Automatic annotation (TrEMBL):
Domain Protein kinase: 1-248
Name of protein: ABC transporter substrate-binding protein
Domain of life: Bacteria
Gene3D superfamilies cross-referenced by the UniProt entry: 3.40.50.2300, Phosphorylase Kinase, domain 1, Transferase(Phosphotransferase) domain 1
Matching InterPro entries: Kinase-like_dom_sf, Leu-bd, Peripla_BP_I, Prot_kinase_dom, Ser/Thr_kinase_AS
Keywords: ATP-binding, Kinase, Nucleotide-binding, Signal, Transferase
Keyword Kinase: yes
A molecular function GO annotation: protein serine/threonine kinase activity
Family, similarity comment: Belongs to the leucine-binding protein family.
């Protein structure tokens, strides 16, 4: 939603300033949420909760300043020095419980208690980031298309979309203490859907938690919110350990002292002022720089907790130096450092529609970026056509990997091609982002799925079924890998957390008409409340026709594989009325993509942006935002993945965010469509509006 700035008052006090981008500030509903956030934060007064120092919610670019804590986050301290000993754990638990008690007494829930939101100081921890905290009675402003919280540390209530209260924060506190004691999450890691499932159904792994802490930690992690202790009880139970110096091991105290010393050595403000980059909004032209907050002078631009400071007489970006890169593909001035991206796409095979959409969206983003004179670097694009063929894909990947100037690749636009190239990009340590491929098997150290995975795209389907009180859900699997990934998670969730009956059916792709009719009649005879088909477009179309012949007229739902013209053409009239869930937005209908749509039409001779053009456009801007955050004259391949995994970016198509440990997508971006008159009609992301 903006940038975080390190600021210093005239009296020398350091503060962290959240400066909101102007385009968000112009949204009345967002300004209402920000106003609410500030009001909530002001209500929490506790020595272990970071206080609000100042704010202006009505400014053209609203801002919020809080006390700056120079110490490391708990997550960083555990990663650098190892798990905490038992006395430090008890003290940590007591002090965080005290902070949460203050939060809950203020009538709110934090909702994102995790090691990254706990900063360590000599006199105790500090709980930060009330950015998604909301008053208990606030139902109007709560998001409906996302799981609020961080997988691995959120509660079962959050994982299932149920109402949350103070016990949810207590569960998260238990997860934080397990991490601090063991260096691991109590419900493991891996794909987001797997962590959510284990959080709801499995017992926590508590090996390594000191015996004296086990009873209370286990009580915090009880699946039933009513059986968990409250924050006040936890504070009382662990109150014997105080923060009167020495509460942390020497290795962590040294880390805190080291970071604090950096703050004492800061140069004068005038020598370190680095202007923040132009707001990265959804318009085709650069927005003006926001004015600095009143009564504050900005010291440096920081992102993801790392200050970009000028030290030793050198600024982070050597903007004045010429940098030649052997040409920029006509992408813009060559006098700036060049960041080259690659696109691997099917531009001439069966998936050329998606490949062409990717190429046009990316070229538009590159051209817009390079047209801004205040950008500190130039973008360039290298395109490799893989024809949608695994063999050709390996050749395309080899060419891009061999070009050392390419620091990240977007693609591939075919699922089989994507699986064929992972090894080559992994070996080259070359970041690969995909806005199209959601196969959970493809996760590795360089792959980032920039969309909800195949399984997680079904999460809003489960919400929709629950909101409409539908039971006896027929879940149809076509025995493809895609079908397995979508139907298994949905069926487990419906049975386990929704308490609903699942009528599982396997209808292999390629089943003949007679077999399809027999299976459709058997399914209809069971009188399902809804039918969900989790397979490919062809099998979904075949089954849609069979259901139509069997006379079924109830709710019919298909996954993203059916969001293509082939489904409509093959199913014909039988497709009408189907609800299709997809991770591709409709730029013609989505309000956030209006400026993008205008720019796309202007650039591409009036053509409307096709599916996945906006998502490809976003990937370029996402990478560019991370390059800015790095603040380096030269960016290498190994630089990007760590920053991407810690970045939250608001694109024109969705919110992009990733799990730092494994790169799994934890942002938003699943949309509903209704087939009407042989076309997909965009309904938006909210299952309540469907």
């Amino acid at each position: 939603m903006g940038v975080v700035l390190l600021g210093r008052s005239r009296g020398g006090a350091l503060v962290a300033i959240k400066l909101i981008r102007a385009e968000y500030a112009g949204d009345a509903s967002f300004r209402t949420r920000f106003r609410r956030e500030v009001a909530i934060a002001r209500r929490v007064v506790n020595r272990y909760a970071v206080p609000v120092v100042d704010a202006d919610t009505e400014a053209a670019s609203p801002w919020l300043a809080t006390e700056f804590v120079p110490g490391p986050a708990l997550a960083d301290a555990v990663a650098a020095t190892g798990p905490l000993p038992a006395p430090a754990l008890r003290a940590l638990g007591a002090m965080l419980a005290e902070a949460l008690d203050a939060v809950h007494r203020a009538g709110m829930v934090h909702r994102d208690v995790k090691p990254g939101n706990v900063l360590l100081a000599p006199d105790g921890p500090r709980l930060i980031d009330f950015g998604i905290a909301r008053a208990l009675d606030d139902t109007v402003l709560t998001a409906t298309d996302m799981v609020v919280g961080s997988p691995g540390f959120l509660s079962p209530e959050q994982a299932t979309g149920a109402p949350v209260g103070p016990p949810s924060d207590v569960f998260s506190l238990g997860c934080v203490l397990v991490h601090a004691a063991t260096g691991q999450r109590p419900f493991g890691s891996g794909p987001v859907e797997a962590m959510l499932f284990r959080t709801v159904h499995d017992e926590p792994a508590l090996d390594g938690v000191p015996g004296e802490l086990l009873p209370l930690v286990r009580a915090c992690l009880d699946k039933d919110p009513a059986r968990r202790p409250d924050a006040a009880a936890l504070r009382a139970a662990w109150a014997a350990d105080t923060a009167d110096g020495g509460w942390l091991p020497a290795s962590v105290s040294h880390l805190i002292a080291e970071r604090s010393a950096r703050m004492l050595a800061l140069p004068d403000i005038e020598a370190t002022w680095v202007p923040p980059p132009a707001p990265d909004g959804a318009t085709a032209t650069a927005a003006p720089h926001p004015e600095p907050p009143r009564r504050r002078r900005m010291l440096a631009w920081i992102g993801s907790g790392a200050a970009v400071l000028a030290t030793g007489g050198t600024t982070a970006w050597l903007i004045g130096r010429d940098r030649r890169d052997g040409g920029t593909d006509g992408a813009g001035p060559a006098a700036r450092p060049v960041v080259r991206l690659g696109l691997q796409a099917d531009l001439s095979g069966p998936g050329r529609a998606a490949g062409t959409a990717h190429e046009r969206g990316m070229r538009l983003a590159v051209e817009e970026h390079n047209a801004r004179a205040d950008e500190p670097f130039t973008l360039a694009l290298t395109v490799a056509d893989d024809r949608g063929d695994p063999g050709a894909a390996r050749g395309a990947a080899a060419r891009l990997a061999a070009d050392e100037r390419v620091v990240a690749v977007v693609g591939a636009t075919g699922v089989e091609a994507a699986g064929a190239v992972l090894g080559a990009y992994d070996e080259a340590a070359l970041t690969l982002l995909s806005a199209l491929d959601g196969d959970t098997r493809h996760m590795n150290r360089v792959f980032l799925c920039a969309r909800p995975s195949n399984a997680m795209q079904m999460y809003p389907v489960a919400q929709y079924l629950g909101l409409h009180g539908l039971d006896d859900i027929a879940v149809v699997d076509d025995e493809s890998e895609y079908g397995r990934q979508t139907t298994r998670f949905l069926a487990e969730g419906l049975r386990g957390t929704g308490g609903r009956t699942v009528l599982a059916h396997t209808v292999p792709e390629g089943t003949g008409a007679a077999g399809l009719d027999a299976r459709a009649r058997a399914l209809v005879a069971a009188r399902p409340g809804a039918v969900v088909h989790g397979g490919g477009a062809r099998s979904a179309a075949d089954f849609a026709r069979a259901l139509d012949r069997a006379g079924y007229r109830g709710p019919r739902i298909a996954g993203q594989a059916a969001h293509e013209q082939g489904f409509l053409a093959s199913a014909g009239a039988a497709a009408d009325g189907w609800l299709v869930v997809s991770t591709a937005t409709d730029p013609l209908a989505a309000p956030a993509a209006r400026a993008f749509t205008r720019a796309f039409r202007t650039r591409w001779d009036g053509a409307a942006p096709p599916p996945f053009a906006a998502e490809a456009y976003d990937t370029v801007r996402l990478v560019a935002s991370c390059v800015r955050e790095l603040g380096r004259e030269r960016v290498t391949r190994g630089d990007l993945v760590p920053v991407l995994r810690k970045t939250r970016y608001e694109g024109v198509s969705r919110t992009y965010a990733f799990e730092p440990e494994n790169g799994a997508f934890v942002g938003t971006g699943t949309f509903f469509y209704r087939v009407t008159g042989g076309a997909f009609r965009f309904l938006g992301p909210d299952p309540k509006a469907v």
